């Protein structure tokens, strides 16, 4: 009976897989990998529990639930503002109620790779701001950071408390086959989206409580507590007693304000704005109803550039005048450390295999996506000849802006991009168009496959690296689309790591 | 607690109270207009604009055209009216977002859901048939938020800042409503004690939701003196000036205790208290109700300013 039900669901779904394959958005159709169903239409083991549950459900009831999810998000106010649109407009990131599932074994392998990579990143930044052994050894070119806008002279020779630069990291992963995971991007500056990881799980548990008694899923709710612990473990020398942790937000009009408030709330920390803080007696202090009180650790969601008008952008109203001096004299911990952005750069990304090997002495466990640096003449030639096949990205870009996806771009777009590329080749890298894995999303017409990526959240403290079992799965809701960014119409899913 | 957060809580509840009081005023106005002839109805709508303190911006837009639908839409949703109920409620929500990590999620959801509801009802001009529902929903929003707060909020300083905002605003708005209505009804002292148009006095009580309580206490007898005494000095009625100040005093005392320090606001509160305790209804009429109310409003504002200063709301 069970076998038959699954077969029905699988057939229905597989038909849709094929339909989207025929659209020709993928250069190599054979590389296509669906995480729920194998090529024969059988359910893969990680999804067996979910599919069993799914087949027992009344489909019209599921459709009603589908509608409920949105109104529940709107009520709780999990919204974000889209840059470039009406400032006051609050949008929801669409939520899909089919979980993305990863087996315990797969997860173990991933975490080893992530831990290795994050440790290397942290060691790399330390090295860059100290002896620069990696440059002396000639493993990466000096121009990599000389031209890097995120490089901060103020950080040279300074060691942050606990020797930690990247307190919070998001590693973007993509999958193309059963054992083929790649790192697409390292987010060591201010990775956002963790509130969605937490709220998506809350929503799933509220909507389908019985599902969680049928399938054993690792909890993600430990994240805020771990974050608070991890930040407290990096308290500065001036801190005496229990560290006072605060989240620094640009304010309620910032696109991620909900997340800032949410994390402060979950950690039991103060949510501060620049105007609440002032440097007094060599400490950063916040204005409370009792008077000024020192802050020990600041989890800032304000970019380096706006952090200190005395050191950086002098017009910034979002930061704290003098905070960099306090930082350098051991009066406060700033997470993530200023200047950490040097490694978010896509040119640095292209050297990550060398970087990992240099600092850990091991081969990278998680590979990079093949990357052509357009600064390199031969690579540029190749890229220009194959623009229709490639994804070209700005070295400093993020959020899916300013990139070319060759296979889906029009002739005109490609021609325009070719000109930009020829004018400033150093500004770009190129990668093959990956056949990103698909997982099903729920639609009124049933399950349909859509491309996904995965951002696990990683915490670094002097005590070690902590990876929350799960993460944020972003899903491209448009058929055939490979762009999962929320700013470009992507949605999110709950991400399950199964218990052993 | 951050000074900015205390400020956010204080103003969030001031705006909530303001929206609610404006809705009561509108409700009473509507009822009045319905029970009177055409000319008196216009007069009633005109007085409503006067009471809202937006005479100039109304005149600029409608040039004295006091029809019901002009007036209620102006008060509910008109962008020319900076104090319209929708934008007042939006202020409630903006402040709530700002202090989101110090209010319980139930309080937040009560505000957010109410706002979503009002926003959708006030997207377009409101027809007479829907007015009662909108106005009722604004009042219900206040009830929901206060209920969620009573049931779920930690009794620390945030709670007391929120309540202080509520009572400062309530005292202010009740005093202003009383002043304006009274002035319209009794242009000079010689009218005190003369036979009154009961429906109009009923309307004064209704504007502050005190009609039923007053009738219960006075067996249906309506007189100007009794009503003023009820709205100013009766500590049993939760919207009277005396009640507001007594509640405010308690919250300021709790704040002083939590901060281990008496501030300027506690001192001003004590003075205001003494004045209220010593005042009888005869004193009020002897002095002149208008003068009494103006002094009351000024004392109330000084207390609010002192709270902001004592607890470092903005600096």
Can you describe this structure?
Chain B: InterPro entries: ATP-dep_Glu-Cys_Ligase-2, DUF403. Chain B: It comes from Pontixanthobacter luteolus. Chain B: Pfam families: Alpha-E. Chain B: Residues 1-311 form the DUF403 domain. The complex is a heterodimer of chains A (500) and B (315). Chain A has 500 residues and is an alpha+beta fold. Helix content of chain A is 33%, strand content 21%. Chain A has a 5-stranded mixed β-sheet. In chain A, strands 3-2-17-18 form a 4-stranded antiparallel β-sheet. In chain A, 46% of the residues are buried. The model of chain A is unreliable at 1-8, 15-31 and 82-87 (pLDDT under 50). In chain B, 45% of the residues are buried. Chain B contains 15 helices and no strands. In chain B, helix 5 runs antiparallel to helix 6 (105-121). Chain B is an all-alpha fold. Helices cover 76% and strands 0% of the residues of chain B. Chain B has helices spanning 3-34, 38-52, 55-62, 68-77, 85-98, 105-121, 128-152, 157-185, 198-207, 211-218, 224-233, 241-258, 264-278, 281-287, 289-310. Classes of the chains: A alpha+beta (500), B mainly alpha (315).
């Amino acid at each position: 009976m069970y076998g038959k039900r699954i077969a029905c669901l699988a057939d229905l779904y597989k038909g849709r897989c094929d339909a989207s394959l025929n659209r020709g958005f993928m250069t190599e159709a054979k590389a296509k990998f669906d995480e729920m169903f194998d090529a024969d239409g059988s359910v893969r083991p990680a999804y067996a529990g979910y599919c069993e549950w799914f087949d027992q459900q009344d489909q019209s009831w599921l459709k009603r639930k589908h509608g409920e999810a949105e109104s529940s998000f709107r009520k709780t106010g999990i919204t974000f503002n889209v840059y470039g649109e009406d400032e006051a407009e609050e949008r929801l990131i669409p939520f899909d109620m089919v979980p993305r599932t990863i087996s315990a074994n797969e997860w173990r392998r991933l975490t080893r790779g992530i831990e290795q990579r994050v440790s290397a990143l942290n060691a790399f930044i330390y090295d860059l701001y100290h002896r620069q052994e990696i440059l002396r050894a000639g493993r990466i070119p000096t121009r990599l950071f000389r031209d890097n806008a995120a490089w901060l002279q103020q950080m040279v020779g300074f060691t942050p408390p606990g020797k930690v630069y990247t307190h919070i990291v998001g590693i973007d992963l993509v999958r193309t086959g059963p054992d083929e995971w790649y790192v697409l991007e390292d987010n060591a500056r201010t990775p956002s989206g963790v509130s969605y990881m937490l709220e998506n799980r809350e929503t799933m548990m509220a909507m389908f409580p019985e599902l969680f008694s049928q399938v054993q899923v690792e909890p993600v709710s430990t994240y805020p507590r771990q974050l608070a612990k991890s930040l407290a473990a990096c308290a500065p020398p001036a801190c005496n007693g229990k560290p006072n942790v605060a989240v620094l937000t640009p304010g309620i009009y910032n696109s991620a304000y909900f997340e800032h408030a949410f994390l402060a709330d979950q950690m039991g920390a103060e949510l501060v704005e620049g105007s609440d803080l002032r440097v007094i007696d060599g400490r950063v202090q916040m204005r409370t109803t009792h008077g000024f009180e020192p802050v020990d650790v600041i989890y800032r969601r304000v970019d380096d550039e706006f952090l200190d008008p005395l050191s950086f952008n002098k017009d910034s109203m979002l930061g704290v005048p003098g905070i960099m001096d306090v930082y350098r004299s051991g009066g406060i911990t700033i997470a993530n450390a200023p200047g950490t952005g040097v490694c978010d750069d896509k040119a640095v990304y292209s050297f990550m295999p060398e970087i990992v090997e240099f600092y850990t002495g091991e081969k990278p466990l998680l590979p990079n996506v093949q990357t052509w640096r357009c600064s390199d003449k031969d690579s540029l030639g190749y890229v220009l000849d194959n623009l229709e096949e490639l994804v070209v990205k700005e070295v400093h870009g993020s959020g899916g802006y300013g990139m070319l996806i060759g296979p889906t771009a029009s002739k005109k777009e490609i021609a325009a991009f070719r000109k930009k590329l020829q004018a400033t080749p150093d500004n770009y890298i190129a990668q093959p168009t990956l056949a990103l894995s698909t997982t099903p999303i729920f639609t009124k017409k049933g399950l349909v496959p859509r491309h996904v990526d995965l951002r696990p959240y990683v915490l670094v403290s002097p005590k070690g690296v902590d990876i929350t079992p799960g993460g944020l799965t972003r899903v491209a809701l448009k058929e055939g689309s490979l762009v999962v960014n929320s700013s470009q119409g992507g949605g999110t899913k709950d991400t399950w790591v199964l218990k052993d | 607690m951050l000074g900015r957060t205390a400020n956010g809580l204080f103003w969030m509840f001031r705006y909530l109270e303001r929206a609610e009081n404006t809705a009561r005023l509108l409700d009473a106005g509507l009822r009045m207009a319905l029970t009177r002839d055409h000319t008196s109805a216009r007069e009633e709508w005109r007085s409503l604009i006067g009471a809202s303190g937006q005479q100039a911006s109304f005149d600029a837009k409608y040039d004295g055209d006091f029809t019901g639908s002009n007036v209620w839409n102006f008060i509910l949703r008109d962008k020319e009216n900076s104090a319209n109920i929708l934008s007042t409620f939006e202020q409630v929500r903006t402040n709530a977002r700002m202090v989101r990590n110090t209010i319980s999620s139930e309080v937040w959801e009560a505000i957010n859901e109410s706002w979503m509801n009002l926003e959708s009802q006030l997207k377009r001009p409101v027809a007479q048939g829907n007015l009662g529902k909108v106005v009722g929903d604004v009042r219900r929003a206040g009830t929901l938020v206060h209920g969620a707060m009573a049931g779920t909020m930690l009794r620390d300083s945030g709670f007391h800042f929120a309540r202080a905002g509520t009572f400062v605003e309530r005292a202010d708005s009740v005093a202003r409503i009383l002043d304006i209505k009274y002035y319209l009804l009794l242009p000079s002292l010689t009218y005190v004690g003369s036979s009154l148009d009961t429906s109009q006095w009923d309307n004064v009580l209704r504007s502050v939701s005190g009609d039923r309580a007053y009738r219960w206490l006075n067996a249906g007898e309506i007189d100007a003196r009794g009503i003023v005494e009820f709205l100013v000095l009766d500590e049993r009625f939760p919207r009277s000036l005396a009640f507001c100040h007594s509640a405010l005093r308690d919250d300021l005392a709790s704040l002083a205790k939590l901060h281990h320090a008496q501030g300027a606001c506690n001192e001003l509160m004590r003075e205001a208290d003494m004045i209220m305790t010593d005042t009888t209804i005869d004193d009020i009429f002897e002095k002149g109700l208008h003068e009494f109310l103006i002094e009351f409003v000024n004392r109330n504002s000084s207390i609010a300013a002192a709270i902001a200063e004592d607890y470092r709301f903005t600096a």
